[in-house]
Design brief:
Radius of gyration of chain B: 20 Å
Strand order of the largest sheet of chain B: 1-2
CATH superfamily of the largest domain in chain A: P-loop containing nucleotide triphosphate hydrolases
Number of helices of chain A: 17
Largest sheet of chain A: 6 strands, mixed
Strand content of chain B: under 5%
Helix content of chain B: over 70%
Low-confidence stretches of chain B: 1-11
Low-confidence stretches of chain A: 244-251
Number of helices of chain B: 15
Structural class of chain B: mainly alpha
Number of strands of chain A: 22
Oligomer: heterodimer
Mean pLDDT of chain A: 83
Distance between the termini of chain B: 57 Å
Helix content of chain A: 25-40%
Number of strands of chain B: 6
Chain lengths: ~500, ~325
């Protein structure tokens, strides 16, 4: 669409990067025009952050060319990228909170006389610089005394003053309230009017439609779409972010368990202020409840509340017909809950311990310190589950950190299966694992369900979740907004709910 | 059952420590030809080698308490001060009370100190280095209050026996240390504590989500360390038949940490070995003895010790192999 004679401000062609054989970026093109606000969208693991890191030289790209104003550049560090004119402002402001605003603005390039910093000159220049952003604040006080929004604007001011032509904003609005967002948007518009190209990474679709000229969507390291905002309807955008190609997978759905079965656990008005809005949820034996929604919609948060990993501040829980408290994972575990978290490395495995030790950990924790599982019992449990789940290599004495992602995930499932749970909560059970293990884990979910376990599965893989879920809770903006059952459990319905809610919020 | 006992006592990766100890013994016997000589006198074993084990007992006892703490990513700087407190209590009560009562009071004080540390770390969420620094400083003051600022001496021979007597032909401190080693092994490896400590140290968030009661375990581990430190303090006081609140156990917390680290436990937590921690304490003591035997000026002591410690740590470092490769590659 761009007339061929105009040279784009920034043009990336065929960017590729793989980590340990996994393609994080696969031949991605990206074009940014001068004065354009360009949304970069995608779910977790889509390649957004890898694209930004390769653009700014944080990681070296494997292939691809990059032109700024038609001139080939290849920054090897953020410093070089900044010099070339590409600056990045991260969600967590990358400035020194304990230094003053003026010191932050001129860090590393303070005006000096005889080798001494000229504080007053620096403050004067800081005030002038911030005045361009209609920001009149005391520049001598520490940056941390200001709101996150102002910290962001200071970071942006610093980046722009470092002669930035391209400004990358990585989720700047994640921790801002509505008023602060409008302030930030005013600054962005002003910068765009000055001809600066802005790459805007966000998860808030409303904001994309409010301010962006163009949208680029990444999925699984590939370019899914790039179009002017006006030409990409919201529904289409959600589909691009979530779905590869929409297959009608509903045919493979198993028959639902009878609805009348007594719930194993019932949550009423369960929630936590600022975390997940109060919700009702019933978990039944042999019944899979899926949690679907965009990134940050409250899937993981719901799972953590249900397991007691985060303490709810409202609502009640009934388990096996009795009112219970659910304040810690230990309590949840005693009630027969199990939880495989999304962050396998930081919250799941204990990397240096063996597969056997990782598998018996939860069972041992439940039995307590004084009732140790003998080595023979441990060997028997680990061996049985390694065979059952086909964990490879089948060596119980290997440190779990050396296993592949899929096998680590299976070992974590084994950890909870060893406790014979009544309710199993799985958060993104198939994230970051290869296709083979993927299918095995889905089969396993079906088998567990058939054996009468109650499952709660949070997943961003919609095609996958509709094949095993009996009921789907759709989340948006940290609230449960719809409950789909029976025929309604399908990818198009879920997408419609997500997009419809998004439209209503505008 | 006996087979199982052997399997958990055997060090997993003990070679660097064992080799280091043998080398130091060899150097010592080169410096002093009589170093390895043992003789029996009055039904008791004597010799420089026995001396190394005997003198190393307090640090070995401290290391037994310190190893599980370090495995949980903690640290206890207060053990030296706890030694002083326990020693002061034992010395003050020794001539007026029965031995049993004296021991219960001294050990109980150590247990309370450990509980205090554990509560600060586990319940109040203080950083271990800061939490235990409080008792490191205050504890010595408490010990001075108990002794009223004097060096308290006692004549109770029963208590003195714990420091300078002998049992089964060995000096009592050695027997006590071995007994504590076996007891700690039974408690830690005989129960599920060892696994839960290593899991928590390796990944505390994952362990908490797996239902491990990390708080209770943290408190228990600090309490145990306090108990070990108190025993070390009693042995030290019994040995000199007196308590010096200013100097008892001074800087020994550093030797204890060093012993654990030499024993292969990472300060980042995770796997730990009690046997190797005791071996680490012996390595430190063997070096001290070796430097005395060599006739080097005592000022050299700390420098030589630092060099040997560096060597042992480098020998354990997985990076060293990589460094060697790098150097080889640099050469044309």
């Amino acid at each position: 669409m761009t007339p061929p004679e105009t040279v784009p401000l920034l043009a990336l062609r065929g960017f590729s990067k793989s980590f340990a054989g996994v393609n994080a970026l696969d031949g991605v093109d990206f074009t940014l025009q001068s004065g354009e606000i360009h949304a970069l969208l995608g779910e977790n693991g889509a390649g957004k952050s890898t694209l930004i890191k390769t653009m700014t030289g944080v990681v070296a790209r494997d292939a691809g060319t990059m032109q700024l104003d038609g001139v080939e550049i290849a920054p090897r560090s953020t410093g070089e990228a900044t010099k070339a004119g590409i600056a990045t402002v991260y969600q967590e402001v990358n400035l020194a909170p304990n230094l003053s605003v003026a010191q932050n603005l001129f860090l590393g390039r303070q005006p000096t006389r005889f080798g001494l910093v000229r504080e007053s000159e620096m403050r004067r220049r800081a005030r002038t610089l911030l005045a361009e952003f209609d920001l009149d604040i005391d520049v001598a006080v520490p940056l941390e005394s200001y709101s996150v929004a102002i910290q962001h604007i200071v970071a942006i001011a610093r980046a722009v003053d470092l002669s930035a032509r391209v400004l990358i904003l990585d989720e700047p609005t994640a921790s801002l309230d509505a008023h602060e967002v409008t302030i930030l948007f005013a600054v962005m518009r002003q910068l765009a009017a000055r001809g600066i190209g802005i790459v805007f990474v966000t998860h808030f679709l409303d904001q994309v439609y409010a301010i962006c000229d163009r949208i680029t969507v990444l999925r699984n390291g590939r370019l899914a779409a790039s179009a002017a905002t006006a030409e990409l309807p919201r529904m289409e955008l959600v589909r691009m972010m979530l779905g590869r190609e929409l297959r009608e997978a509903t045919a493979a759905r198993p028959v639902s368990a009878p609805r009348e079965s007594e719930p194993v656990a019932v949550f009423r008005g369960f929630g936590k202020a600022g975390y997940v809005e109060p919700f009702d949820l019933a978990l039944r034996a042999g019944h899979v409840v899926g949690l679907a929604g965009l990134l940050g919609s409250g899937r993981t948060e719901t799972a953590r509340l249900v397991f007691g990993a985060e303490r709810a501040d409202s609502g009640s829980v009934t388990a096996r017909g009795q009112q219970v408290t659910l304040h810690s994972p230990r309590q949840a575990m005693r009630l027969g809950f199990g939880y495989c978290p999304e962050e396998r490395k930081t919250e799941g495995i204990v990397a240096e311990l063996t597969v056997r030790e990782n598998i018996v950990l939860a069972l041992q924790a439940r039995r307590g310190v004084l009732r140790p599982l003998s080595r023979r019992e441990q060997d028997e449990i680990a061996g049985r589950l390694i065979r059952l789940l086909d964990i490879r290599p089948p060596d119980p004495e290997r440190p779990i950190g050396l296993l592949s992602g899929g096998n680590q995930q299976k070992a974590l499932l084994a950890r909870w299966l060893a406790t014979k749970p009544a309710i199993l909560i799985l958060d993104e059970p198939t994230r970051g694992i290869d296709v083979g293990a993927h299918a095995e884990i889905i089969q396993l979910i079906r088998a567990l369900c058939a054996e009468g376990m109650a499952l709660l599965v949070a997943s961003s893989e919609l095609e996958e979740i509709v094949t095993y879920a009996d009921e789907i809770v759709v989340l948006r903006d940290r609230a449960h907004v719809a409950r789909l059952e029976g025929e309604a459990v399908s990818v198009p319905t879920i997408l419609a709910v997500i997009a419809a809610e998004a439209a209503k919020a505008v | 059952m006996p087979r199982k006992a052997v399997s958990f006592v055997l060090p997993r990766l003990g070679m660097p420590q064992i080799v280091a100890l043998i080398i130091i013994f060899a150097i010592n016997s080169f410096l002093s030809p009589h170093f390895l000589e043992l003789r029996v006198q009055d039904g008791r074993l004597f010799g420089s080698l026995v001396d190394v084990f005997n003198r190393g007992a307090p640090v070995a006892l401290l290391a037994l308490g310190m190893a599980p703490i370090i495995a949980m990513r903690g640290i206890d700087l207060s053990v030296g001060a706890v030694m002083a407190i326990a020693g002061a209590i034992a010395a003050s009560l020794a001539d007026s009370h029965a031995l049993g009562f004296v021991l219960v009071c001294a050990l109980g004080a150590g247990l309370m100190c450990g509980l205090w540390n554990g509560v600060l770390v586990a319940l109040l969420g203080m950083q271990p280095i800061v939490a235990t620094l409080i008792l490191m400083v205050a504890g010595r003051g408490v010990a001075q209050l108990i002794t009223e600022g004097r060096i308290v001496t006692f004549a109770n021979t029963d208590l003195a026996w714990l420091g300078s007597g002998s049992l089964l032909g060995l000096p009592t401190p050695i027997v006590l240390t071995l007994a504590m080693l076996v007891l700690t092994l039974l408690v830690v490896r005989g129960s599920a504590l060892g696994l839960l400590i290593e899991a928590t140290g390796g990944n505390s968030r994952a362990s908490a989500l797996a239902g491990v009661g990390t708080r209770v375990i943290t408190i228990a581990v600090y309490a145990w360390c306090g108990l070990c430190a108190a025993l070390a303090g009693i042995v030290a006081a019994a040995d000199i038949m007196g308590a010096d609140a200013n100097n008892a156990g001074l800087w020994l917390e550093l030797d204890a940490i060093l012993a654990v680290v030499i024993g292969g436990t990472s300060l980042l937590g995770g796997r730990f070995s009690l046997v190797l921690a005791v071996l680490g304490a012996l390595i430190i003591q063997a070096m001290n003895t070796g430097i005395l035997l060599s006739g080097f000026p005592p000022e050299m002591n700390l420098i030589v010790k630092a060099i040997v410690v560096l060597a042992v740590l480098l020998a354990q470092s997985p990076r060293l192999a990589g460094l060697g490769l790098l150097l080889r590659r640099r050469r044309p």
